[in-house]
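seq:
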Amino acid sequence: MSEVQRRQFLARSAALAAAATASLNADTASGGSTSFMNNVPDPLLSGQELPTFKFALEKSEGKVIGGSYGKEATVEQLPISKGIAGVSMRLEPGAMRELHWHATAAEWAFVLAGRARTTVIAPDNTSETNDFEPGDVWYFPRGHGHMLECLGDEPCHFILIFDNGYFSEFGTFSITDWMGHVPRSLLAKNFGLPESAFRGFPKSEVYFARGEVPPAEPAKPLAGWRLPPQTHKYRMLAQPPHRVFDGGREWRVDSSQFEISTTLMGVILDLDPGALRELHWHPTSDEWQYVIDGDISVTMFGSHGRFRSETLEKGDVAYIPQGYGHSIENVGTSPCRVLVGFNTGVYESIDLSQWIAGNPANVLATNFGKPEALFEKFPHDDVFIASQNGPQPRP
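struct:
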């Protein structure tokens, strides 16, 4: 993203925020309820056709410094994704995503390859350092300062998910950018040091700092250790799958296991060739998908006869707005793996088979104009994942 593009994006975001605030204030002033403000129709989703919900994240240019990069999918790249933004980040050995914080978004991450170390500080002055391997997850609440660095002599790669689609990874608050624009006299007064101590400090944002490979054991903070009451780390794929089916399996972590992760949660979904994560919807969250391996077909239903299918390959992302019906199908010849993120701390979904099974046969017969006997053959349980041959029909 160029500097001009970044400024345009920030200007548009500010304008949208101002408009939303004005609308909210006007409604409040007229005595209306503010509890349903998010139900004002989204012009992007109110047309006769559904917009694209796919973006080729790994094929995008992103920001590259040396052997490290950050590639993002926000409303700038994928306009439908207003509730969640995502970033693919690679760090080369010795590289660090510098000390920074996010003013408008919490961060949830899944490690794909390599090893990484993080430190995070909270408003209560607790801090935590953790090391991560593939399959591990971290979560940083909105506004908490943190850094990310590569461990060892191999690059690391992770996916970051943010609970705000307008958030840009390239609009974070970085420590070098801040201190580089504060007068030396003010820094000297702040830290009780001579102005000369700040000579040679970076004058602009470093973003990716590069140095020696970190030691195997993390060093103590200057103030020593005072650990937070809740850890920022969870070993997701070190746990057994949440659900196993003929055709696939699912790992899931939300705030019931990872207590600090109150605004974001994630799923790893494995599907065998031909398998289907059945038609369903999420009543309380948007959904953001990243294809780790394989080829999938994602469908989305948006009412009034609007239906759209997109085919995704490795490195692509998709976004499904809250409440929109959808499915995920492995259309390749090898198993696929999909990372799925939600902007909620508690998982909720309603599957189409579950909805059918939750109604009497006579209700279904009247609804569809078909004999009751037909619906006795439908699954009487939640299908969730259907194998290549589909659910076994009832006799």
